[in-house]
Amino acid sequence: MVKNSKRKSSDDSGAIVSDNDSHIGSSNTKNTAPALRSVNEEVETADNLQCEDPFEDVYEEDDASYEDVYESSGDEDDEYMEAMTEGDTSAAAAAAATTTTTKEEPKLPPPINTNDGELQPAQIKTWNPFMGNTTGEQLEMDETAYKMHHALTPEWPSLTLDIVPDAHLGENRTRFPHTVTMVVGTQADKRGKNKLSVLRMSDLCRIPGSGREKTEKELDDEMLGDAWKHENDDDSDSSSSDEEAEEEELDPVLENYSFPHSGGGINRIRVCPHNPSVVGVWGENGEVSLYDIGGAIDMLDRSSLSSNARKNDGNLAMNKEVRKMRKDPFFVYSGHSTEGYAIDWSRVTPGRLATADCDGNIHIWNATHPVTPNDIVAKYGNKSQSSPWSNSSFQVEPMYAAHGDNLDNPSVEDLQWSPTEATVLASAECGGYVRIYDIRCPGKAMISNKIHSGGADVNVISWNKLVGNLLATGGDDGKCWSAIIIVPSSSSSKVPSCTLILTHLPFSSSSPGSFSVFDLRNFQTSDASIPPKPLARFHSHRTPITSLEWHPTDESMIAVSDDNGTYVYDLSIEEDDPENNMNEEEAAVEGVIPPQLLFVHSGSDMTKEVHWHPQIPSCIATTSLSGYSVFIPSNL
């Protein structure tokens, strides 16, 4: 009996050999592996028994090696043999010479594709908000960038909106779900379809899983690792998951009440800060109307489904009497020569209003009776909740006309009352002018400066309510810088030096925009022809600035909008390397992102106005051609 244990040989032949040299009987013939046997040994005899190997390898010899295949194609040898057969010695000699040349210079093998059979990796491009969407692709929202985000598409677009403070839910509301009330004005296709609407959006929950404050256990896990076991681990997990599940079950609720506006499209809306029931409306027919929306607010308070309202002040909301509603405006002023956009209520003097038109005229309004709710109740009492407002509630006085230095385009685009002075206001005008007025001196501006030397319009202004000497302006800056990098064709150094050339293009109707921040203590210049130097100026926007507003509780934060989106800046952030700060021209190069930019909200079509919610920290509301958005960034 023969016992064989087969294994691979370590030699290059790959043959299978035996582990032991067993002998049969008295024969001294050595067993040889089948692959190594000669032809004479293939015949099986009693002295040469053959054992079949089921694992025997089969080897196929190639006709030519890889090098032989690519060394010569063989066509030259065929030509030589064919010429010799025909007796053409000259052709045979030429073929032989070609063969020799080919062998001296062998053909290189084709490159091996290392990604053969694999998909090419997708090219990842970083999206730059200041470069625009040049590829025509549609942006997708990253939900992790928001704590809360809700959007609404109305029947008609709106150029303007304003936030209505809530009297019952309190200040500094951080707990979800939220309730937001705002007024909007439409731009309908027909004059008679326009309306002033009061929108109440309640049960606005956070995006599931994003922006939630981390629990004590989660903070410990981050510092100590997974091996850390927190006390009451299961209880904390279940409580946080139950809280999230409760929020996810709530669906947003929208309620609205509308007032017809016979003056056509609505250009601008502003809510009176001392009495949110009074709303000023600039119409495209050149009239300024005042509405009393107190009855609509009472009705929405009673029917509100907000869990916060029921939990905090539900009895008051359900038992509150609804004031009588008047659908038409209680005061209509037709003293302006044309339509306008500038309107603002004073935050120092209750019931003081300023309006301006496209002819450069500024009119000042003053209430003739108490404005605040407490003062109204103290003087008139409840009287069945009747409205005290009438067509004699305000007295309007034309105060300022167009200035001689800007008669070609005198339109006043925006107005802002001082947050600390009862008689001081600022105006933003076409032609690049910003003026400061004191209504105790009618007919002239106290300070007048052309901040845009090229004559680009100043569209909007915002007065910082926490730091009274800071004024922000936004408009068409009239500058468009293109960067051209020139690299020398030859250089002695390994890395050639580059030259950056900035090309200044003149502004046009589609010019990029800028916003600036001025210190009013240094706003007046000795030479009127020299524009005042701002504390900061940002040229990165590719379209004109349409709105801006300072944060109500953070003195250095500001929200800015242009046609492409909404941006949040923190002006307290400085460059990491102060020695390499960019100058104004370098910062204006297309695509440069300033370090002060904290957040970008895009996806809306032609954003027109942005506002911070005064009672919900870092909550922003915007209006655009595509609709309304209410959101809280995750990093604020």
What do these coordinates show?
Mean pLDDT is 77; it is low at 1-30, 69-73, 305-309 and 480-509. This protein has nine helices and 32 strands. It is of the alpha+beta class. 15% of the residues lie in helices and 29% in strands. A hairpin with a 7-residue loop joins strand 12 and strand 13 (353-356). A four-stranded antiparallel β-sheet has the order 3-32-31-30, with no helix packed on it. It has a four-stranded antiparallel β-sheet with strand order 4-5-6-7, covered by helices on one side. Strands 8-9-10-11 form a four-stranded antiparallel β-sheet, with no helix packed on it. It starts with 5 loop residues before the first strand and ends with a strand. 32% of the residues are buried.
End-to-end gap: 87 Å
Rg on CA atoms, Å: 41 Å
Please count the beta strands (DSSP E, at least 2 residues each): 32
In terms of DSSP E residues, the strand content is 25-35%
Shape: elongated
The unreliable regions are: 1-30, 69-73, 305-309, 480-509
- Give, in spatial order, the strands making up the sheet with the most strands: 3-32-31-30
Which class do the helix and strand fractions yield?
alpha+beta
Please describe the biggest sheet, giving its number of strands, its sense, and whether it closes into a barrel. Answer: 4 strands, antiparallel
Helix count, DSSP H or I runs of 4 or more residues: 9
Subunit arrangement of the protein = single chain
